[in-house]
Amino acid sequence: MASEHLTLVQLRLERAGRPILDGIDLCARAGEAVALVGMNGAGKSSLLRCITGEWPLAAGHVLVAGQPLAHYKPDDRACWLGVLPQSASLTFPFQVHEVIALGRYPHRTGNQRDQAIIAAAADACDVTHLLPKAYTACSGGEQQRVQLARVLAQIWEPIADRPRILLLDEPVSGLDLAHQHAVFRQMAPLQAQGVSVLFVVHDLNLAARYADRIAVLEQGKLVCTGTPHEVLTEERIARHFQLDVDIVPHPTLGCPTIISR
Questions:
Q1: Record's SUPFAM superfamilies (predicted)?
Q2: pLDDT tens digit string along 136-193?
Q3: 20 to 30 A from 154, CA-CA: which of 91, 168, 191, 244?
């Protein structure tokens, strides 16, 4: 079994005295993609904020390679933990190239290597043609792809004795169909290098196609986890998503395909 890069143990989160997450046990192994799904307000984005340490826990532990998250200094963590939030506000007229370069800031790999990685990340996210353009002049979808390139540049290369973890909160929000699939296809080469990917997505068909495992959150609790075939059943979707569906195998990939009735 692959080593566990990220382990959540009985994680509990409270905000203003109100429980947001409770009793979350979850792991992401090396090279594994785990999808977080659930209705609005289920706690998916809150869970990512706990993993990054942005929100303090009321109870439980976030372990990275078996060590508590606090074991790693922030500048160390920034070299191997990449985070794409739901929205990234940037009002300064930076060029796209400069925005992607922010992902290399924690590293000390030299300008020549950094520029090569920036170019590779831009190409992976189909924003090479935007590099000299002002970020604020880009469309919403273009900005989303630029931010993804920034995060990929941050965790592009392996680091000795450190896991690499990628957290993506609705990474395809606002993207057209072609770029939605392109985003997830860019995860495969990183996974092949051992990067663990945890992503929030609302489209269950995208989760079925690109996740190794799916975790369903409901009212702050983890109600089920497993492979797409184990989790995405007609009964579970009706129960947890209030939607009647038919499940058929994808004609070429074999993964579950969800069709609303």
A1: P-loop containing nucleoside triphosphate hydrolases (SSF52540)
A2: 999 989 999 999 999 999 999 998 888 999 999 999 988 899 999 999 998 999 999 9
A3: 91
